[in-house]
Amino acid sequence: MNISVVSLELAALSIGFLIIIFGLIFPSFRSSKTGGYLAIIGLLSMLIGSFFLPASNTQTFINAFYVQDDLALFFKQLFILAAIFINAMSLHYLKPYTKNKGDYFALTFFALTGMMVMASAAEFITLYIGLELMTFTFVLLTAYKKQDLKSGEAGLKYILLSAISSGVLLYGLSLLYGLTGKLDFAGISSVFSLGATSPLVVWAIIMLLSGLGFKIALVPFHMWTPDVYEGAPTPITAFLAVGSKAAGFIAFIRVFFHVFSVYTSIFMPLLITLTVLTLLIGNLIALAQTHLKRFLAYSSIAHAGYILLGVIAYSKLGLSAILFYLMLYLFANIGAFAGVTALVINTGHDRIADLTGLWKRSPFLSVIFLISLLSLAGIPPTAGFIGKFYLFTEAIHQGYLWLAALALGMSLVAIYYYLMVLRTLLSGTNEETKSFIIPFSLRLVMIVSAGMTLVIGIWPGPFTDIALRIAQSFL
Amino acid sequence: MDQFAWLIPTLPLAAFLIIVALTYRFKLLSAIVATSFSLGSLILAISILIQKIQNPKTTETFINWLTITANQQTVLTLQMGYLIDPLAAVMCLIVTLIATLVLLYSIGYMKGDEGFSRYFAYISLFTFSMLGLVISNNYFQTFVFWELVGLCSYLLIGFWFFKPEAADASKKAFITNRWADFGFLVGIIGLFTVFGSFNFTELSAVIGLHQNTLVLLILGLLVFLGPMGKSAMFPFHVWLPDAMEGPTPISALIHAATMVAAGIYLVARGYILFASVDSVMIVIAYIGGFTALFAATIALVQRDIKRILAFSTLSQLGYMMMALGVGSMTSGMFHLTTHAFFKALLFLGAGSIIHAVHDQDIFNMGGLVKKMPITVWTFVIGSLALSGIFPLAGFWSKDEILTVTLQHHFTGLFILGTLVAFLTAFYMFRLIFIALFGDKRSNHHAHESSWTMTLPLLILAILSIVAGLVNTPWFYQWTGMSFSTFLFFKEPEIPVIHWSIAGLSSLAALGGIFVAWIIYAKQHISADKLAERFKGAHTLLLNKYYIDELYGWVFNKGMIGLGKVFNFIDHTLIDGFFDGTATLIRSTGIQLRLFQTGRLQQYALVLFVAIAAMTIWGVR
Amino acid sequence: MIGLSHYLFVAAALFCIGVYGVLTKKNAIAVVMGIEFMLNAVNINLIAFNHFMAPNHVIGQLFAIFIIGVAAAEVSLGLAIILSLYRQRHLVAIDEMDILKW
Amino acid sequence: MISLFYLFSAILLVFALGTVISTNLIHSALLMMGSFFAVAGLYLLLQADYLAMVQILVYVGAIAILLVFGVMLTRKGSIEESNLPNRYKGIGLLTALGLFGLLARSIYYTRFPAPPIGHPTQSILAIAQAFLLQYFVAFEALGILLLIAILGAILIGRDSK
Amino acid sequence: MHLFLLILIPLIGALFLILIPEKHQSLIKWTSAFFGLFGLALSIHIFFVFDKSALGMQFVESIPWIRSFGINFRLGMDGLSLSMVLLTSIIWFTGILVSWDLQERVKEFFIYMFILVAGVFGVFLSLDFLIMFVFLEIAVIPKFVLIHVWGSGKKEYSAIKYTLYLLTGSAFALIAMMMIYLQTMTLDFTQLATLTFSAPFQKIIFILLLIGFGVIIPLWPLHRWTPDGHSSAPTAISMLLAGVIMKLGGYALIRIGIGLFPIGAAFWAPLIAVIAVVNCIYIAFVAMVQKDLKYVVANSSISHMGYVLMGLAAMNTVSLTGAASQMFAHGIMAALFFALVGLIYQRTHTRMIADFGGLAHQMPRAATLFLMTGLASLGLPGFYNFVSEFLIFVGAFKTFPVLATMAILAVVITAIYVLRVVQQIFFGPRNPRWDNLKDISNVEMIPLIILVVVMLGFGIIPAPMTNLIDQGIDPIVQHEVKGSL
Known about the structure:
The structure holds five protein chains of five kinds.
Chain B: H1 7-21, H2 27-54, E1 59-70, E2 73-84, H3 86-109, H4 116-135, H5 139-157, H6 164-195, H7 200-207, H8 214-230, H9 239-242, H10 248-257, H11 259-269, H12 271-275, H13 278-299, H14 305-326, H15 329-357, H16 373-387, H17 393-407, H18 411-436, H19 451-466, H20 473-479, H21 483-486, H22 499-521, H23 527-533, H24 535-542, H25 547-594, H26 600-619
Helix pairs in contact in B: 1-2, 1-4, 2-3, 2-4, 3-4, 3-10, 3-15, 3-19, 4-5, 5-6, 6-8, 8-11, 10-15, 11-14, 11-15, 13-14, 13-18, 14-15, 14-17, 14-18, 15-16, 15-17, 15-19, 16-18, 16-19, 17-18, 17-22, 18-22
Chain C: H1 4-24, H2 28-52, H3 59-89
Helix pairs in contact in C: 1-2, 2-3
Chain D: H1 2-21, H2 25-45, H3 49-73, H4 89-109, H5 123-132, H6 136-157
Helix pairs in contact in D: 1-2, 2-3
């Protein structure tokens, strides 16, 4: 009963409940931002605490089904960091929409718990429950702006589609259980290592691939992403783009690196085809987007494609490339979404056309957009370039030169549509000359995320070392 | 004295720099600076010539201007230095003498022109580059100054840039020269690649060993392209008549005496290269001969005084090239020297006529003999010298060339030479009878030019008379040496007169004068009826065999057309291809975007269809 | 004798009926019903495997209970959203709910 | 014993088809309830008695009733056309049948190893132990999940004043 | 410490400018001029401190950058990179002076320019392929913004076209870099030079590098970005673009392509030679029919880079030294050309050659300078361009006699279109329309005089610069000779 393994989850839950209870006791608390500040302080303390937690393969809770290894801890820290940024962004975002902001912050904590459970789960039941907890909280957060039709519709779409995909996932899991009689990763992989393949194994793999693919927005299962990202409130879209996708990836990594390591011949060709589709469709449709949130949705789909390159590389270095890329992906996306939040606060909608003349109205915001979008595009001073270099090198190393070339070609298309946004941002004059007002918390988020993007870009040394150490410990 | 040889070109350069930097605003001061510095380098040239006459050994010193080393050994060295031998000494004298006289003459001629000091700066720059070319000791340095001389001719022809014809003429001159220099450059680089050095002495040592090889033939022809451009041999002659757009002293200095002579000088300097391949010599001889005849025929019908002199220069250059081609460097150089004097005289004379009459068409002149006696009579002396009448310089040098052509068994060229002598005499005296004597045709009020213009005329007239004697047998007995013993290729030749040839050529010249006298002075045979009878030939000659139009057509239709084709390829094909792919990608993006219809069940359908497809593939 | 494959066939049939329900029904609640059928099919699968393949331990049934719990939560949330949407747009047909597109 | 399985399966499949095909939403709700009963029956056949009881309680008792409430609250226009098929009727049918065909084929071809002869355990005790020991984290998470559902229902479902 | 400081100067300058508020335009201009001068002074100091006789890299500094990749931040300099650094700092300083009377968004203009220059310095100084690539891409975005915001003509189209061409090109170079990295686990030039690669590998890598850096040079089929990019860019930027950015490709191709993969280079050399000839002649003809003055100058830059390509193709010491010195000479000349065209455009607000005529009457200074630059571009002796072209022709004649002759032919065609332009604009009768034009003021003359002095100075005494470049080229050629045995 090693309590330190679940300490982060417990902390998150306790803070979440605390906020709800305060909201019930002091009605004024519900409508004020203090809940948010409490949340942020709580998360910060959790983040600091997480660095002192022991993390190794032997760190298991009751039995081997809930483990706190380096990989899990890394992702947990990532989720907490994302949660901090999201809460900071939502402080001012919610003012016009709802009175009871307290519950909103509490919900972010429950989503965080869901993610953390997924990160540490070593067997499918816990993984599934963590997945559902995270999804349902996100559904609630997406539909939070009740009076906005878009938010409601996004919520509906998200819950129904995620229910369908988890139905498929469950069917796959049931087949898996049928074939091996076990549901924990180690057990299943030991049974599979005996190597008896039957058609149902193929079914199980495909259904798992589609279930998890839904979470990381792999192409045929990505259709929900643009609509939900556009419908949801901007901080939640950011949390979805960063948190939920990263959680999807940790599940993906654990399942496909450990459980199905024997059946690469089956799932690798499928994964490659889907990655090619993701790269193509993610980048091509992003070209034609006019609204920023939808644009960033497609850009996040494209980035899922690049990260999958690391999975296809299927090696230690591939995994470390994924971890490094997720770090810079987090900071770049947070920066971009913080910018969109500021835009929505000031202009009310998120059209790319609204960005014209931003250089004059708010030079600070245009610099932040510049840095974040450059990192997403993978242009050197920012971290994006090193991330892409690391991923592509590893893909070529494993012999997928054509795939790396395709990814490179698609990242050129990506640079085109990022430049289109930068172009509107940096030029042109806008008739309203009143300058943007950016609340302090949002400004802080932007500075930290853009700052980190530059730091990782200019001095990637320590970060690649962390990624490599974790990857070595996991594989 | 030789160690001061590098001073000869640097003096005019210093003059150029002083004018440009300091005295640009003071017109007269810059003229004085230019003339005095040129005079200085003339004195230096004379002293070096005298010293060279005493002991004719060649001295050469140079510095390594640029060296490229590969793996510690030098792979390429470009030298800058000077090589003084009789040939260079003579050329230095001609250039500095004519330059000083032209500068003196120009003070009067250019008075009142707003670009006065710019004019003198350009001339000093020209003298610098010409002298640099003359004393250079290797092909690289020659090529460098060769280009600079081309530049100065461009600047000076286009001196009155507000005249569109002048601008066109200067561009035409420069580009035609560039076409020729292209061959010259390839030739030099070929020489370096094959023989390993640019230096004249080293090259002549190496080339001496080879005889009549194909490589030498190609390189010889390529290098000869340069002189063809500069000395306006047949295909590259088009720029010289148009170069008359520039001020007349310039035509005298550059397009009569010095620059056009650079081609002949270069052939003389690198004579071993050409002499070692017989077929190259034949080519040179026949090109020279043909150009002489070709230019002489055109000169017959020209109306503009400067155009006539230009074509006569062309014809005389052809003569010199023929002499070199035939095999005698000495006679070629001798004719170059004498020709420099009387042709400069004729041009300056024409200049003072134009200055007085303000018109260049000979049919609007006439009756000038009373108004401008010095100019007219010096002009007549020049024409006599040019036609090769007995005591004057032209007789000796032309006779020398004709004897040499006969000696080297080029009988065809000998006949052609005498015919050209007849034509030369005819068109020169046609000009004299129409423009100078006869009745006054237009209401011009001519007056004699000032002393600054007439003094050079007189000096040149004296030289035209005296210069020929240098290579006469009597002079050889009297002083023990002559032009041909001083400046020769391999071994000196003793001057000797072959009265039969001399007689024949004088007869031709006198005949030419007589016929001109009949048609134009006495009008027994009217020129117009003659022109009527040979209508076709007359118009052909008047339009200079339509070569200008041919080149114009080739350039406008050919070059511009090709440019348009390439521009089309660039704009529509290449741009079309790249922009096309960009728009293609963008339109696929737009189409794919519409696939996202927003209906929830369509998303679910895609999900299940994808699963079905994957299982069909997976379970096979 | 009723073997494992019989149950699997029944579960597969139920799953496909659920899929049909989800894909072709206009009314949102009918779609939720379809989803319920899919989840029930999974439960049958699990319990059948548990009974036939690993009778001495109880993971299958445990997982089924978890799934039932999740299904309940999912229905309650789904209906909450459907009702709030209905109240605003008086609309239950999913086809017309396509404000968010392209 | 064998006939019971066929009975329950038949009821299950017929009722399920009924729910899915009928255009009247109330009929399909009721038919669904019936099919849940049949599923409970199957559980009993598989000696999963606790499961059968939970199925009846939760599915039939709670979820079906909830859906019926939902149906009642969102009635608009005539009830007969309340549950019409959308434009993807044909393709939907095709995909469903295709999936079923593929699944059936795979199930048919897999030879499941002979079931180990072990005595079925006392399910309730074992399930309780598993809940609180091996899968304690999942159990807690499920609790939170249900709390979220309630919170969501309140926040979103309630008619904002 | 010199080199790191050299890259830092523009960055510190950019920081300084960020602190100055937008409305003190003159203060901004003076600070940027100060930093420009400081950079120039430092590079001249390095020029004198540089030990001409010692072979190989000098002032080498190295800090581990990404330990896990085995990549460290290595800077070093040899003769070749010093000449390029000198070129960059000269054009940078003159570029600042030329854009003295810029009015709108001055602060951002100089900040972006400084980042661009920092990127360029980085490329010339880095000894690690990845670092060079990072700096190469750092320079991309400032260029995009500068052309897009401060450009003229169809600036939007040109900006995006320019950036996409360059990035597509650098994508090829990126693939090559990755393949090298996987082969040797290091991207450090000095270490790579010691390793030997198999012939087929070298051939693949070289063609990728050729396409990658060929876009920047530009090679013929990939050159379409240059006319639009250069003519749409503001004056100072088109000076930097034509003067320096085009040389990045040439420098990188020499340093990496020929330096590290000699067998590959030898295999592809005939192709480069043919493309070089096309570059020279084809583009010269295109330049002849252009109606817009800036397009003529832009096309002439491509045609001149064709000579560099010819020099590269011949791959012997003389031709490579010629190519590198041509890069320097053409850089200065192109900068001067664009500066003059910019000044003319500023006064006449039109770039169509047909509109001009007889400008020499109103602007004699501009006419003389334009004529001098034109003459330099057609390879008149007395300018450094002639020396470098001569070296290229001598070197190229040894390996490709026929192609070298055709390249020499291009010199004549250059003469034709240059003189045509000079005549159409400056000579001819006085055009009353331009009577109110005032000639170039003394202040504006300073940068132009600097460029002319450099061009003429090295033209008359080429030894210092050429020997410097030779010091850089020699080890590359020795390695190549040893490599290809």
